[in-house]
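Researcher: I'd like a structural prediction for the single chain below. Treat it as a standalone chain; there are no partners to consider.
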Amino acid sequence: MLALSLAIACAPAAWAQGVQPQGPSPWSYPPDLQAPTDAEYQGVRERFEEGMRQRAAHNWSAAAPLFRENLAVYWRTYGPEHPVTGMAMFVLGGTLDAQEQYPEAETLMADSIRIAQTWLPEGNAWYGIAYGILGRCQGANGKRALAEVSFRRAIEISHAAGDASSERTARLGLEEMTRFYQQSGQ
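Model: Treating it as a single chain, here is the predicted structure.
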């Protein structure tokens, strides 16, 4: 249950409300992997809460190692393709994006989206946020065409889901990237 509460806590309220995963429950760990110990769960909770406090204070460099350690626990416990691992990738990717560590953030965001597509309905508002972050990372990494696709997907999903804040953020990201490339002659 801690994994579920941590994953929901890092997602927007629209994502947390009324989401019914498809297929078997994504919150159970695969039988061939070892269940986390109580100490691991306690450590994950403490790191997550401290990481969220650090993020709220915009202290990204203090938050990133905490989220990175949680990702390692989830990877070892649930495996690399599990929804909980994917949400941990999303949290760390967003934190690294804020630190302008775009190459790693791009990889983590792309992987979190790919994993979410195995269980979370495609039109969910969470995708608007994730595609917006992915677009920003792709643009910063010089991948303009991919970034435009990601930003447009973020705008489309956010609009359809009624998430005006994420839609506005994605529109501004697309406009800013377009201006940058126009000014640089690219």
